[in-house]
Amino acid sequence: MKKLSFLTRITLLLGFFFALDKLFAILRGIIILREFQLSATLDSFYFADLLPSWEVAVFSGSALAMALIPVLSQTLTLRGRQAMWDAFSRIANLAFIVTGIAAILAAVFAEPIIHFWIAPGISLGQQQFTANLMRIDLIATFIFSISGLVIAALQTNQHFLLPAIAPILYNVGQIFGALILAPSKPFSFGPVTLPAFGFGVYGLVYGVILGAALHLAIQIPGLIHYGFRWTPSLDIRQPALIEMFKVLWPRLLTAFGVQLMFSMRANLASRLSAGAFSAISNGWMIMQVPETLLGTAIATAMLPTLSELAARADWNGFRQTIERALRVLIALTLPAGAILAAGIHPLLRAVFHLDEAGTDLLTLTTRVYMLTLCGYALQEIAARALYARKEALTPLATILVRLFVYLAIGITGLIFFQAIGAPVIAFAEISLTIEAILMLLILGHRLNAPIQIDGVLLKGLAAALLGGATAYGLAAILPGGAVITAILGMLAGTALALVIVHKEVRLLLDL
Questions:
Q1: Which of 11, 366, 382, 458 could form an SS bridge with 301, CB 3.0 to 4.6 Å?
Q2: Do 33 and 354 meet the contact criterion of CB atoms below 8 Å apart?
Q3: C-alpha to C-alpha distances, 1 to 7, 451, 459, nearest whole angstrom
Q4: Is the pLDDT of residue 61 over 60?
Q5: Distance between CA 35 and CA 397 in Å, rounded?
Q6: From CA 468, how far away is CA 257, in angstroms rounded?
Q7: According to DSSP H, which parts of 312-455 are helical?
Q8: Cα separation values, 375 from 90, 282, 344, 371, 406, Å
């Protein structure tokens, strides 16, 4: 039996835990939608969560992680683990202070932020309610300002297990909030009856805070195992840290651009009918299930290795690693998006218990998001490849292109196709596919050789067309309940798609 490569083993490990994470995320979404439906109240929760998520992404978490891992990897390789922890401590101290100041300012100016930026289209009363939710939600940012960076530090040490478990526990906290803290009536499951605290949508926010605490707590054993020692200093006058900040400032602006797009999504959706933003948020969450299992798992596993290859200037190995990952992702994500779009309607109706209009809205929104699945996955690879090369200005430039295209599509859709509702805003995220293509073209130019995918795009499209048609057709003609026939159709479509792209899928064993 062929021995799996290190990247393949890490990808499979991450894929397993990401699958659990998304399973819990779907469970959380089911509980929340069954309790609140596609409503203005639920819209307020999603609006309120935008700015805390923005602060986490910009001032800690993913923004720093992509810039931090290459520098920490270099420090670990050249100067040892204690030097790495010293550098990490100084960055974490600064991130905690900056995030805290930003959170306090956001709490003070919560109402004008909601009114002028995030959700200008909702009523003043709903804006006030949303601002109150956001102030409580901001507590979680203090926790994530450290927790997101700990993930980067552990991954630098090639430890992926605890960082992969952390998001699962974040969802567990939110499920506790949705299942116990929010409902007004006890939940019964067989002989078991769970208490209900009746906090309403505030219970969802309390669940976010609990989830953030669990997200950090599970990683503490990893810090202990790798000998973490805290340096109580804000002095960042070290060559490695100065080098990191040269990469960091454009990364922060890039993360700001990404979160600005999310806020523009909310801004546009607030001008639609009640429940539209809830449909957008949940449709995006459903699309993120296959995207995380494929794109995020592979890209997360690749970043430390790409950073090492870049540090050694092994550009041939660097390019080949990227090309293998792209072939796998194109071969998997194109048919996955088509097959899921074909069979998802009866599944959404069965699990979310929405009315027919709500189910139709969520189905169409999710199907539109599935068009962006491949682009999301490719962008994950391209962005990490550029950050591994410490080329942070390129993603900053491409996010500006993405923002322009997104706003152009979103505003045009809102003007001419507002009656369609949420799916119009979802379609604007095709801009991310354009950004991914642009990044890969630039990356190929920098590597002095185009990124080669060897015809996998045509095979992926053929697999998507035939697999999706098979899934939809069988679901329509097979006898039996809608859920069963949808699942059978999707399984048959998947089997046919895998026959077409099996050679590319096998590359997953040798990333």
A1: 11
A2: yes
A3: 17, 30, 27
A4: no
A5: 42
A6: 34
A7: 315-352, 356-370, 373-388, 393-416, 422-427, 431-446
A8: 36, 19, 20, 8, 14
**In the listed set 230, 254, 271, which residue is the last one of a domain according to the structure?**
271
266 and 372 belong to one structural domain: no
The secondary structure of residue 313, as a DSSP letter, is: T
Domain end, chosen from 271, 301, 330, is at 271
Instruction: Look up the domain containing 318 and give its range.
Output: 273-511
- The answer to whether residue 24 sits within a structural domain is no
The whole-number pLDDT of residue 3 equals 56
Q: What are phi and psi of 451, to 5 degrees?
A: -70, 120
Is residue 242 one of the residues assigned to a domain? yes
Residues 423 and 364 sit within 8 Å (Cβ to Cβ): yes
Q: How many CB atoms lie within 10 A of CB 428?
A: 24
The single-letter code of the amino acid at 110 is A
pTM (2 d.p.): 0.84
Q: Is residue 347 part of a domain?
A: yes
DSSP 133-173: HHHHHTHHHHHHHHHHHHHHHHHHTT--HHHHHHHHHHHHH
CB 506 within 8 A of CB 328: no
Q: Does residue 450 lie in a domain region?
A: yes
List residues bridging with 192 in a β-sheet.
Answer: 189
Assess contact for 119 and 48: CB atoms under 8 A.
no
User: What token pair was written down for 235?
Assistant: 């002095």
Rounded alpha-carbon distances, angstroms, from residue 205 to 50, 71, 142, 148? 12, 35, 14, 19
pLDDT tens digits along 155-191: 888 888 898 899 899 999 999 999 999 998 776 666 7
Q: Are 331 and 494 in contact (CB under 8 A)?
A: no
Report residue 192: phi and psi, to 5°: -95, 130
- The neighbour count for residue 245, using CB atoms within 10 Å, is 16
CB-based burial label for 31 (10 Å; 0-12, 13-18, 19+)? buried
Give yes or no for a contact between 510 and 465, defined as CB atoms under 8 angstroms apart.
Answer: no
Q: Do 250 and 277 lie in a common domain?
A: no
Amino acid at 49: D
- Type and span of the H or E element at 193: strand 192-194
- The continuous run of DSSP H or E covering 187 comes out as strand 187-189
Within this chain, do residues 66 and 200 fall inside the same structural domain, yes or no? yes
Q: Are 409 and 352 in contact (CB under 8 A)?
A: no
Q: Are residues 306 and 332 in the same domain?
A: yes
**381-385, 455-459, 478-482: which has the minimum mean pLDDT?**
478-482
- State mean pLDDT over 272-284: 94
Residue found under tokens 């290190």:
6
Dihedral-angle region of residue 407 (phi above 0 means left; psi in -120 to 50 means alpha; beta otherwise): alpha
Which residues on neighbouring strands pair with residue 187, listed in sequence order?
A: 194
Quote the CA–CA distance of 201 and 178 in Å, as a whole number.
8
Residue 330 burial (C-beta neighbours within 10 Å; 0-12, 13-18, 19+): buried
